[in-house]
Write a structure and sequence with these properties.
The protein is of the alpha/beta class. The protein has a six-stranded mixed sheet with strand order 2-5-1-6-3-4.
């Protein structure tokens, strides 16, 4: 068994398959999941695991070259907006409907147990060299 890092075998395996430019949607329990991408559903109970915990774990594992979130997060979920701004300084904000369209191009969807609105972000993978 792994001693550190992401222990969920489905998520660890999915992350190992990602390449440069692949997109990962990290979403709350209410975000519509697009048809097509691999889905790792971590939701256990409302709020568990939190969006913040999952995002932090993914950022420890991945190189990110860009990220997109819904601009509505600033008004509807200021805590998530602060988290995203702090973790992803070059965050692009688009309308929530546009984020849903962009999410259809994700290779992986990681669903959290977050039960607050607009706790969603689309990450674009980079390379470590």
């Amino acid at each position: 068994m792994k001693k550190a890092g992401i222990l969920n075998r489905h998520l660890a395996g999915a992350l190992a398959e990602l390449g440069h430019g692949d997109r990962v949607l990290v979403c709350d329990a209410g975000m519509p999941v697009p048809a097509g991408p691999r889905v790792v559903d971590l939701a256990f109970r409302a709020g568990i695991p939190s969006f913040a915990d999952v995002l932090e774990g993914l950022l420890d594992e991945l190189v990110i070259e860009g990220a997109t979130a819904a601009r509505e997060v600033r008004e509807a979920n200021p805590a998530a907006a602060r988290l995203l701004a702090g973790c992803l300084p070059d965050l692009e904000l688009v309308a929530h409907d546009e984020l849903k369209v962009l999410s259809a191009g994700a290779r992986l969807v990681v669903r959290t147990g977050e039960a607050r609105p607009y706790a969603n972000v689309l990450l674009r993978c980079g390379v470590f060299f």
